[in-house]
Structures are given as C-alpha cells and as structure tokens.
Amino acid sequence: MKKKIIRIILEVLAVLIFLIYISPLILVVINSAKTGSVITTNPLSWPTNWGTLIDNVKAVLSSPTVQYGKSFLSSVIITVCSLILITVVSSVAAWAIVRRKTKGSNILYYMFVAAMVIPFQVVMYPLISWFKTITDTVTMPLFGFSLLRSYQGMIFAYLGFGISKAIFMFHGFVKGIPYEIEEAARIDGCNQFQVYTKIILPMLKPIIVTVVILNGIWIWNDFLLPLLILGKGNAIQTLPLAVSNFVGAYVKQWDLILTSTLIAIVPVLIIFIFAQKQIIRGMTEGAVKS
Amino acid sequence: MKKYLKKNLAYYLFVFPAVLAFILVVAIPFILGIIYSFTNWKGYASGSINFIGLQNYVQSLQDNKFIYSVIITVIFGLLNFLFINLVSFSLALMVSSKLKGRNLYRTGFFVPNLVGGLVLGYIWQFIFNSIIPMVGSNIGNSFLANTYFLSNSKLAVVALIFTSTWQYAGYIMMIYYTALQGVSKDLIESSSLDGANYLQRLKNIIIPSIMPAFTISLFLTLASSFQQYDVIVSLTGGGPAAIFNGQSVQSTELLAVNIYNTASVQNQMGQSQARAVMFFVALALISVLQTSITKRKEIES
To answer: What whole-number distance in Å separates Cα of residue B247 and Cα of residue B266?
Structure first.
C-alpha cells in the first residue's frame, strides 16, 4: 500500500516536472493566440479565441516592414541546397580518401578533422573581406554574381563550414564497407562513377540521414553567418534574421513577435514528429563521435 | 599506366570540390585571421595594412572589458556545465525509470534543443519580463513579482544560465540516457537483492558505469558554453551595464559577443582578431585535453 502511494506521488511529480519544463513552448503557443493587450494583462490565461492565432500569423506573414514569408522561402532554399551540396561533396571526398591509402590522402583527412577545432570567431571577419575580394576579382567579372548578400555565397559558405564534420562522419562509415563489394562491381563493368551511385550511395543511407539532420538543424537555426554574409534588412533574409528584424520593428509587440518565433519553430517540430528516432539518434551519435 | 592515370583522375575529381570549398571558406580566412591579428587591419575595404607586432594582444589584455569577458565566460562555462549536467542527469534517470509517460517525457525534454538560439532567447526574454513577475504576483511572492532578471547585472547572468540549461539539458540527457541503457541489469538486480537501496545503487553501480558519458558531456557543455552567442544577443543583448575594476562593462558580454562587438561596434578589427585567436588557442587546448583523456580511458578499458 505504501509502495503504491509513493508510486502515485512519483507519477504526479513527473507530470509536473514535464509540464514545467515544456511550459515555455506552451506559453509561446497560447500567447500567439492572443492580442497584445491581453498578453500584457494576462499572459498566463488560456486563449479565448483561437482565431486570433490565424490573425496573428496573417499579420506576421503580411508585415510591410519585414518580409517574413519571403524569408521563410529563402531559408528553405538555403537549407535544402546546402544540405544537398554538403552530402554529395563530402560523401564523395570521404569515399575517395578512404579507398586511396596514400600519405597525401591521410594528410587531407587530418586537415579536415583538425579544422573542426577552429571557432567561427577566428574566421568570420576575414571570410567577409576575402569573399569581397573573390567577388571583385573573380565571380563578378566572370560569372556576374556576388558572394555577399547572395544565395550563392551563403550556400558556398555553408558548404565550406559543413564539410569537415561531414567528411569525418562519412569517413568512419565508409571504412566499414568491404572493398570486395566494389571490386565485384568493377569486374561487372561499372566505372568509378557508377560504383559510387549504384553501390556506395545506397549503403550510405543511414549516415546520410544523420549528416542531413545535424546540418539541417544547424543551418535552419543559424544566425551569425547569415548576419555577416546576407546582412540585416537586405533583399535575401533567413528566418532567424527575419525574427530579429521583427523584434526590432515591432518593439515589445509580443503577440506578433511570439507568433513569428512560433512560425520559425513549427517546421522543425513537424519534421521532428515524423523522424523523432532518426533525429535523436543522429544528433547524439554525431556528438559522441566527434 | 593509362589505367593508373584514370584511377587517379577519378580520385582528384572526387576530392577537388571538398578541398576547394575548404580552402576558400575555412583555410584562407583562418590564415588571414591569424595574420590580421598582428596588424592594424581596419576591415572589409583592405586599404593599407601594417604589422604592429603584439600590440593588439597587449591592448586586449589591458582592456578591462576583455578581462571581464574572459572571467565571466569561465564562470558562466563552469556554472552552466554544473547546472546542465545536474539537470540532464536527473532527467535521464527520470526517463529511464518505469514511469508511465517516460517516452513522451524523453521526447519533450529534447525539443528545446531543436529551437534556434536566437528564437529561444526572445522566448525567454518574454518569460523573464512578462511571465515571471506575473507568476510572482499570482502566488504572492514579492521577490519574483518585483524583480526583472534581465535588468539586474548579476541576475542577468543567472537568467542566461537558466536559459541555456533549458536549451541544452535535454540533449545531454540523451547521452546519459543512452549510457544508462547500457548499465548491466543483472548487476543492479543482484545488488538490490543484497539489500542496496536506490542511492547506494546509484553511487556504487550506475555512476561508475557511465563515467565515459560524463567525460563526453563535460567537454560538450564546456565547448558550447564558451561559444554561446545567439542566445545572449536575443536574451540580454550583452547587457545590462555593470562595474568591473572601476570601469563600466556589459554584464553578459561573453567572449564570443565581446569579439563581435570589438569589431562591429568599436571598429577595432585587428584587436577583435587577436581576441579570437586567443579564444581559438584556449578551445584548442581544451580539445587536446579531451582527446588525451578519452585516449587514456580507451587504453584503460
């Protein structure tokens, strides 16, 4: 009997701890469904009219000062393109590095791994001035685009910062694929490119999922790199930049600010609901291995 | 010979894009960054750059703002590490128990980690400014009702620790949770048959068997605390003002923020680089320490 009572107390306690822990997220949702004046007088109450949530979302998306809807699209473009490039470029490179056992190959691998220690703060300002130099001397005169304030520059920067860790992760995985399988395919007449697309790529699936998740969450939420490369308030903005513009333009208008944060969180949450196991495994494995 | 060439060509073709992106985005800016730290570099428009030796380093170390920033970063890092690990270990014990909702709890605790630092900071700004005073007055606690955490230089640091613990604990919890799953069930069972209570089991069996997870969490939390930037920008903006050594400083201006502000606000690009290089050396030392500890552990086991 005594055991049963303790058990019930523990269960109730657990529910309370859980609710308190996720209460910030609940508060965002319920206050996104209120008007500004209701939030000021009663931020803790349950919303009386959920229709307000839709009004707030509409107000955020159609804001004349911050082009929120457009930023959403830009974030999707930048995240998706960067993920595709990071995955292709680093899986191919890691595969080549593993299969060619030379000294140069080894040095290359350690160069990528060592770079993971470099904090972003050391490279950020030189990167911007260097990107400007490349723009003035190469990309603008030859190809007609700039590396600053552009999709190209943003995606290229994510590629550069993303590949080190991705190569490290692919490297570990490719090492476990028996070389005999590739040999057999080559005897059957596959060239290097076909070996990659038909044999290696399908086998890399689990690690690709991990790499995409880790980099996807990083890129979607990243603030400092877009701030430096795209700049605040320019034509192309990512969601975190838009949220920060929003806070600047609608000072203390928590109904709209909280709704804008909600819109930024929801896509990640939806993906999380569908790919919970992979995300949790991918993120913890990625950390433990590096 | 022809075949050899063909194979090599494929190799270079496969490695080339990665090497190109790496050199252009990381390697060259990194080298430039170290060089600039010894010059009077003024930023984007290159202009004339002169070597000034260690002047940037010396001036940084004489700047009270920087010294304060180093001290507060270390304090924050240690407290943050302590809180995150306490909370995440407790949560891990909770979600690996026999509680009914354990799977839901595990997922829920992890969710804050998916929210970007910037967005998260704004959410907590709202909580500290609007929710906590309201809760305080509802439960009749005059301290909570009348305190604005973010306007008080000491409490703002507390608020920052609170926020980043909330952000990170669910993530570290997963690492402990995975380790706890690996603890031998037989060992626990036989010890409880021998009459050991929960706390004894925790101390003598569970904690020793998950020591590797502690090492991982230690370095993960330390590295992430030192690099904290987004959350600070949106939660406190570095402020409020405080007095350190008779000079006005920003109370939550941690290193990453200080490096950014030195360049963008004070326009001291060279000095900002010097600070970043010192930051890099500190982080590199931490990771060398980490690798040597992990290696030694691996040899032992």
So the answer is: 16
CATH superfamily of the A68-289 domain: MetI-like (1.10.3720.10)
Q: Is the pLDDT of residue B48 over 70?
A: yes
Token code pair at residue A275: 């790919």
B220 → closest Cβ in A24, A129, A287: A287
- For B39, phi then psi, to 5°, come to -125, 175
Q: B115 Cβ partners below 8 Å, 6+ apart?
A: A25, A221, A265, A268, B123, B167
pLDDT in tens, A52-67: 888 889 988 888 778 8
B2 confidence band (pLDDT: 50, 70, 90): low
CB B121 within 8 A of CB B163: yes
CATH classification of the domain holding B169: 1.10.3720.10
- N-terminal to C-terminal alpha carbon distance within chain A: 49
Residue carrying the six token digits 């040999």: A183
Which 3 state secondary structure label does DSSP give A75? helix
Lowest mean pLDDT among A235-239, B119-123, B216-220: B216-220
Domain that holds residue B170: 60-300
For residue A257, the one-letter residue type is I
| Number of structural domains chain B divides into | 1
> Is B45 a domain residue?
no
CA distance A256 to A262: 10
Q: What is the pTM of this model?
A: 0.90
Residue A81 token pair: 């393109």
- pLDDT at position B126 over 60: yes
Please tell me whether residue B243 adopts helix, strand or coil conformation: strand
Inter-chain CB proximity B33 and A123 less than 8 Å = yes
Residue B98 lies in a domain: yes
CB-side neighbour CA atoms (13 Å) of B97:
17
pLDDT for res A230: 94
How many C-beta atoms surround the C-beta of residue A178 within 10 A?
A: 8
The answer to whether A131 touches A218, Cβ cutoff 8 Å, is: no
| Residues A98-108, mean pLDDT to the nearest whole number | 88
The answer to which of A230-239, B17-26, B120-129, B178-187 has the lowest mean pLDDT is B178-187
The pLDDT score that the predictor gives to residue A64 is: 79
Whether residue B17 lies inside any domain: the answer is no
Taking an 8 Å cut-off on Cβ atoms, the answer to whether A96 and B273 are in contact is: no
Sequence ranges of the domains in chain A: 1-62, 68-289
ipTM over 0.95? The verdict is no
> CB B131 to CB A240 under 8 A?
no
Contact criterion met (CB < 8 Å) for B101 and A14? yes
pLDDT tens string A186-234: 888 888 888 888 888 899 998 999 899 889 999 999 999 999 999 988 8
Q: How far is B6 from chain A (nearest CA, A)?
A: 10
Closest CA in chain B for residue A121: B276
Q: What H or E segment, with its residue span, contains residue B3?
A: helix B2-22
Distance CA(A182)–CA(A196), nearest Å, equals 9
B25 lies in some domain: no
Helices A205-221 and A68-99 pack at an angle, to 10 degrees, of 140
| Strands in chain B per DSSP E | 241-244, 247-250
